[in-house]
């Protein structure tokens, strides 16, 4: 009899060991974990994260796992939630074009929290991450771009499945428990794109992480679900993706690992990736033509189908909204000559010169890029008219993509920027570079406090 999708996932989890992981995959995962730890520590003091952490204190007294960047602990599910929020709040975390979402931000917080609770090794964390991301990405291969087109925030929708797989690996859950947990997770997939530009977007990552752990424990204590919750009539795939019949029921888990085939995008800028090709292009044009805002008469931006759905804040009034604004990314790069952490402050967003320049920027769907469909890479065409010249150039792909990788030094520089002020920066970075050698998480937890 053909295995259901949940059975395929459970079989994959129970039969894949660390030794089965390709070395190239392990190296990519370590790179993702370096990026994750850095952006999590960088985001720990953002108001939405701090406020949510205060709320958590009213809900539980459990001390099971460590909240990154401080000496506090909480229950394993709340720890995963707050760490996920912290790593996503700056929108500096990695991206997958398979989901057009953020895989590490939901899977890694669960993996670290569960590994700490159950005293697991770094290899266990890497395995949990590998299996979790593979599951969410192979599900996405069956259902994208439909789910994104419908307005769902894919990080949360797919993330709950990846996170529950990671949790089940580290808890050593049974075949039956994993099947039930996947089915329950199908009822917890959520997150709507209209909340981009608010603190709730980062909460989507936290929600997926929290839901995953809660789901696994519910299944552990006996709550059951449909073995065909993913593919059955009115199941996850039909309801979320409008696919009524899944022609190919084989997820091919662990065959042509998705991360090795399509890779991850590591961000240069702490904002929505849909603006990154434009930011790269403007950076180059500003340097080449010595562009200044006072000389610019008009900027026309041609973008892809997805960009306007993600960059929903046309004229941002604060730093969080600015992360989802094409206009701000362009204006910042011209006026401040940068688009880093320092540029995402309320004061800089409200600067009169920035607000005036944004009014000179027109954005529309480019006819050429429209033919490419609902893609995540966000190719961008920019036309600039100044008092003296007219410029038109295209950028199809931002730096940080697998085809335009960040250098090892750029990865390290980003990590050190994010962990500025941390006493054990160098030790933490070196530990993560050889993470698979750690027998437990004690040294890592000591370094991130």
CATH class of the largest domain: Mainly Alpha
> CATH topology of the largest domain, what is it called?
2-methylcitrate dehydratase PrpD
Gyration radius, in Å: 22 Å
Number of domains: 2
**Structural class estimated from helices and strands:** alpha+beta
Percentage of residues in DSSP E strands: 5-15%
Organism: Malaciobacter mytili LMG 24559
Family: Belongs to the PrpD family.
Domain MmgE/PrpD N-terminal: 7-242
Domain MmgE/PrpD C-terminal: 269-424
Description:
By secondary structure, the chain is of the alpha+beta class. It has 2 domains: 5-262, Orthogonal Bundle (2-methylcitrate dehydratase PrpD), CATH 1.10.4100.10; 273-395, 2-methylcitrate dehydratase PrpD (60s Ribosomal Protein L30, Chain: A), CATH 3.30.1330. Helices cover 52% and strands 7% of the residues. The chain contains 22 helices and 6 strands. It has helices at 5-15, 23-43, 47-57, 76-88, 104-117, 122-143, 146-149, 154-171, 175-186, 199-220, 236-241, 258-262, 276-289, 307-310, 319-322, 326-335, 346-350, 352-358, 367-370, 408-418, 425-433, 442-447; strands at residues 65-66, 73-74, 296-303, 361-365, 380-386, 390-395. A 4-stranded mixed sheet has the order 4-3-5-6. Helix 2 packs across helix 4, helix 3 (47-57) packs antiparallel against helix 4 and helix 8 runs parallel beside helix 10. The chain is globular and about 70 Å long. The model has no long low-confidence stretch (mean pLDDT 96).
């Amino acid at each position: 009899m053909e295995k259901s999708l949940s059975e395929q996932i459970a079989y994959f989890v129970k039969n894949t060991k660390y030794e089965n992981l390709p070395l190239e995959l392990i190296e990519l995962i370590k790179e993702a974990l370096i990026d994750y730890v850095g952006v999590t520590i960088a985001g720990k003091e953002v108001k939405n994260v701090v406020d949510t952490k205060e709320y958590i204190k009213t809900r539980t007294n459990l001390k099971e796992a460590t909240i990154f960047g401080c000496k506090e602990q909480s229950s394993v599910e709340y720890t995963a939630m707050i760490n996920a929020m912290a790593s996503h709040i700056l929108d500096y975390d990695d991206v997958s074009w398979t989901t057009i979402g953020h895989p590490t931000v939901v899977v890694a917080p669960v993996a670290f929290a569960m590994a700490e609770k159950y005293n697991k090794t770094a290899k266990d964390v890497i395995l949990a991450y590998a299996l979790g991301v593979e599951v969410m990405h192979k599900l996405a291969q069956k259902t994208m771009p439909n789910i994104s087109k419908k307005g769902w925030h894919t990080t949360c929708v797919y993330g709950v499945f990846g996170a529950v797989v990671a949790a089940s690996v580290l808890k050593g859950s049974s075949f039956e428990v994993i099947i039930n947990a996947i089915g329950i997770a199908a009822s917890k997939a959520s997150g709507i794109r209209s909340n981009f530009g608010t603190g709730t977007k980062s909460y989507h990552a936290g929600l997926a992480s929290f839901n995953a752990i809660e789901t696994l424990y519910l299944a552990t204590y006996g709550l059951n679900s449909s073995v065909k919750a993913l593919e059955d009539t009115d199941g996850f795939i039909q309801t979320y993706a409008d696919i009524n019949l899944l022609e190919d029921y084989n997820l091919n888990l662990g065959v042509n690992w998705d991360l090795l085939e399509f890779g991850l995008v590591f961000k240069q800028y702490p904002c929505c990736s849909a603006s990154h090709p434009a930011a790269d292009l403007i950076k180059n044009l500003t340097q080449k033509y010595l562009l200044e805002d006072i000389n610019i008469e008009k900027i026309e931006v041609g973008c892809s189908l997805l960009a306007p759905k993600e960059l929903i804040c046309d004229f941002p009034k604060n730093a969080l909204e600015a992360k989802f604004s094409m206009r701000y990314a362009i204006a910042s790069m011209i006026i401040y000559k940068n688009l880093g952490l320092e540029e995402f402050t309320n004061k800089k967003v409200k600067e009169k010169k920035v607000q005036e320049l944004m009014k000179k920027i027109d954005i529309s769907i480019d006819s050429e890029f429209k033919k490419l469909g609902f893609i995540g890479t966000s190719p961008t065409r920019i036309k600039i008219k100044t008092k003296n010249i007219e410029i038109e150039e295209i950028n199809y792909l931002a730096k940080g993509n697998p085809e335009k990788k960040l250098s090892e030094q750029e990865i390290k520089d980003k990590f050190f920027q994010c962990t500025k002020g941390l006493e054990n920066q160098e030790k933490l970075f070196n530990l993560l570079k050889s993470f698979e050698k750690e027998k437990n998480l004690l040294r890592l937890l000591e370094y991130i406090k």
